[in-house]
């Protein structure tokens, strides 16, 4: 009788324990990515402010206060001075703007240069991170560390990582972020996410508490510890230092940050002294020079953390008491010491650096919360760790997330804000088509990844019409694409494939953008693709590699004269891939550089969008406002000529010379007035188009009123359109203020009109307490006349 053979057992992949094998990093690919990223945006250095730069920098009084405004920036929403509550707590980019303003004033060129440098640093970090993922690890042998596989394999893997990085860096969709100064929040967010992933990978490779050793790294560690402590201490002061948000005219009351740095530095010094003492004791115990955190015993490590923290607190309290600053109580000094200790301890550990990076990513943009998913994913796909152990490693990052959102709630009082009912920016919520629009926008986003043309800065109402009627096919297409890619993501996840990770990255990175549509009914924006481009780049390079591998002429092996298979030279193997992607990268780079020019200033940017987004109510209004600016300049020139002529004519005694001067001046005045009227009419044409697209567009009516108030004088039309603005957008403070100006100018001896002026000034302050023009005008009128009216009968309001 034939025996039954044993059943075949499918071998399971062994669990990878820590530390994982170290993966070498070649220095030149990160440098190439950094240089390419820098050179692509050099032509933005002479650009001015555009779009949201004005609200984030020029009109942000806390930013303009420089270092003294930082505590207020830590306690207010991103759009605080725009009088809207979107629940955005993103102080880090605003803090960098404040620092730049402190030392360089309003310098858009410097702001653009720093954006470009930060983008280049992203290239540097990404170049290292991609090699950690795609280049095979080193293997321990009797002779030491050697690269797993052959050198040609390693070279090919480096080329793969470089090509992925180049597609990401050169992709034109990033222009909205890098060429727009306000986009720094997205740049910083992605930079710190990349650093988080890189530092965490180093932790996986070392499985050590700290990265510092008693060698040359000790001095570097002390410097980094000091920097971390200063950041930690000053950050805590920004949060707890003031009892309430100061008004713009109280900014000067802030404590000098230099004093906070001194207190925090004293805390760090105390912790470093304790570290040195503990390390000396531990070195004597083990018989070799070691730092205390290298002690394998957990209790010893926890004791070290506790003692260094106490030392930092004592140092901070001691320094605060010697400085005699009344604003800094002992309790606040303790908090500064805790912040200094936390900052210095975090930056001396790979895991701590990863957690600190995540925290700064949160401070840049709270949507960075989705990046936590990349930590277990990278371990699962590239380190081949068990999914459950990968998930368990998230606990310190979840603590950081909880602390950040608690801080956000304490600072601004909300986690979600109150998005306005706004057809221009949240049309799909009003229409109730958020879900359908999400699928349709998904198709649009995929199209922009593969074909980034045309690129426009605005997709507000009604660029992409409602997802009803003829738009149904696009919705179905987007739904099919989304479901298909989700299926492939799940399939690739269980197979641990490169394309599975790429699709996973893409969907996680797209979650905030798609959620903005699904949950808030917001509009499409190119900035939501910033991080998702990396997933796209991985899929493209992987897909082309698979395609060329199936072509015999480009396969990994070739037959020699005897017919035996031999490895094909790496460059020959990758030549077609490099050639094709060189063409693609050339086109991407050309598009990026040319698109940068559109971001030179508002006039160029807005007009560049007009041919592609004529149905956008915002684009029409923005273009109109630029013509209004030109009209105002023309009017100003005419007034200057008239004033200069009047002053000069008085000094002339010759009547003929007087007449000649007046005649010449009148020609110039008429020319400028005609130009102003022309620009005003062009503005009105665009504004009428905007109100036809969106009949309830209050800001468009405001601009129409402004034309009639300042450029083409017509008092009744100005009043009519300002009141139309209030009917459409009753929280728009400038409309109330400008009505007040009109009535005050007409007032004279008419007390009723002065009362109307006071009423409208008060209304502007009521709807926006931070509106400075309304405050100043109200104060001046009250000082001059004593009139302060907050309530008027509707009959009186309507009769004027």
From TrEMBL:
Keywords: Membrane, Repeat, TPR repeat, Transmembrane, Transmembrane helix. The chain crosses the membrane at residues 25-42, 116-135, 155-175, 187-204, 216-240, 260-282, 302-321, 333-361, 390-407, 472-490, 496-517, 529-551, 571-590. It comes from the Bacteria. InterPro entries: O-mannosyl-transferase_TMTC (IPR052346), TPR-like_helical_dom_sf (IPR011990). This is Tetratricopeptide repeat protein. It comes from Rudanella paleaurantiibacter.
């Amino acid at each position: 009788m034939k025996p039954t053979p044993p059943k075949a057992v499918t071998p399971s992949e062994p669990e990878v324990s820590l530390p994982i094998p170290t993966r070498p990093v070649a220095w030149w690919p990160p440098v190439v990515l950094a240089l390419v990223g820098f050179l692509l945006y050099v032509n933005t250095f002479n650009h001015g402010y555009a779009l949201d730069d004005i609200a984030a920098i020029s009109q942000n009084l806390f930013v303009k206060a420089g270092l003294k405004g930082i505590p207020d920036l830590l306690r207010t929403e991103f759009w605080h001075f725009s009088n809207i509550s979107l629940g955005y707590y993103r102080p880090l980019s605003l803090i960098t703007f404040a620092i730049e303003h402190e030392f360089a004033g309003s310098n858009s060129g410097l702001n653009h240069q720093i954006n470009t440098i930060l983008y280049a640093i992203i290239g540097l970090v990404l170049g290292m991170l991609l090699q950690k993922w795609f280049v095979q690890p080193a293997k321990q042998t009797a002779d030491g560390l050697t690269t797993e596989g052959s050198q040609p394999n390693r070279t090919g893997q480096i080329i793969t990582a470089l090509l992925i990085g180049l597609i990401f860096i050169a992709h034109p969709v990033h222009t909205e972020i890098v060429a727009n100064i306000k986009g720094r929040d997205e740049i910083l967010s992605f930079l710190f996410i990349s650093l988080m992933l890189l530092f965490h990978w180093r932790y996986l490779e070392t499985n050590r508490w700290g990265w510092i050793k008693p060698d040359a790294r000790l001095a570097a560690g002390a410097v980094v510890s000091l920097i971390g402590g200063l950041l930690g201490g000053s950050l805590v002061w920004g949060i707890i230092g003031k009892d309430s948000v100061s008004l713009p005219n109280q900014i000067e009351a802030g404590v000098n940050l230099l004093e906070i740095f001194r207190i925090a530095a004293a805390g760090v010094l105390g912790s470093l002294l304790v570290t040195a003492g503990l390390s000396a004791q531990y070195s004597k115990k083990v018989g070799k020079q070691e730092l205390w955190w290298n002690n394998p015993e957990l209790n010893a490590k926890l004791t070290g953390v506790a003692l260094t923290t106490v030392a930092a607190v004592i140092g901070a309290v001691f320094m605060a008491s010697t400085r005699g600053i009344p604003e800094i109580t002992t309790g606040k000094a303790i908090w500064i010491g805790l912040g200094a200790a936390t900052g210095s301890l975090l930056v001396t550990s790979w895991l701590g650096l990863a957690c600190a990076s995540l925290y700064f990513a949160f401070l840049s943009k709270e949507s960075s919360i989705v990046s936590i998913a990349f930590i277990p994913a990278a371990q699962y796909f590239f380190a081949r760790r068990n999914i459950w152990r990968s998930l368990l490693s998230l606990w310190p990052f979840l603590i950081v997330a909880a602390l950040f959102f608690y801080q956000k709630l304490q600072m601004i009082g909300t986690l979600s804000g109150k998005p306005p009912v706004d057809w221009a920016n949240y049309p799909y919520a009003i229409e109730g088509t958020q879900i359908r629009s999400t699928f349709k926008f998904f198709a649009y986003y995929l199209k922009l990844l593969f074909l980034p043309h045309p690129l426009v800065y605005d997709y507000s109402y009604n660029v992409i019409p409602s997802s009803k009627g003829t738009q149904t096919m696009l919705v179905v297409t987007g739904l099919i694409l989304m479901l298909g890619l989700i299926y492939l993501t799940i399939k690739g996840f269980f197979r641990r494939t490169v394309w599975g990770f790429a699709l996973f990255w893409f969907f996680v990175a797209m979650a905030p953008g798609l959620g903005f549509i699904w949950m808030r009914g917001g509009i499409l924006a190119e900035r939501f693709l910033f991080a998702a481009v990396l997933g796209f780049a991985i899929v493209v390079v992987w897909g082309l590699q698979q395609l060329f591998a199936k072509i015999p002429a480009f396969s990994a092996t070739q037959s020699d004269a005897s017919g035996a298979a031999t490895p094909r030279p790496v460059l020959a193997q990758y030549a077609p891939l490099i050639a094709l992607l060189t063409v693609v990268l050339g086109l991407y780079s050309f598009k990026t550089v040319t698109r940068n020019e559109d971001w030179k200033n508002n006039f160029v940017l807005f007009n560049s969008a007009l041919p592609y987004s004529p149905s956008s109510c915002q684009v029409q209004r923005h273009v109109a406002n630029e013509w209004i600016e030109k009209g105002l300049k023309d009017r100003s020139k005419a007034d200057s000529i008239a004033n200069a002529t009047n002053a000069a004519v008085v000094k002339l005694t010759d009547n003929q010379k007087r007449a000649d001067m007046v005649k010449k001046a009148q020609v110039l005045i008429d020319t400028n007035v005609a130009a102003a009227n022309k620009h005003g009419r062009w503005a009105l044409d665009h504004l009428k188009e905007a109100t036809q697209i969106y009949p309830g567009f209050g800001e468009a009516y405001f601009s129409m009123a402004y034309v009639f108030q300042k450029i083409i004088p017509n008092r009744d039309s100005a009043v009519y359109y300002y009141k139309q603005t209030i009917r459409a957008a009753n929280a728009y403070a400038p409309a109330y203020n400008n009505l007040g100006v009109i009535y005050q100018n007409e007032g004279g001896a008419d007390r009723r009109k002065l009362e109307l002026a006071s009423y409208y000034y008060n209304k502007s302050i009521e709807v926006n307490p931070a509106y400075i023009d309304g405050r100043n005008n109200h104060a001046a009128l009250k000082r001059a006349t004593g009139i302060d009216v907050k309530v008027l009968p509707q009959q009186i309001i309507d009769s004027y």
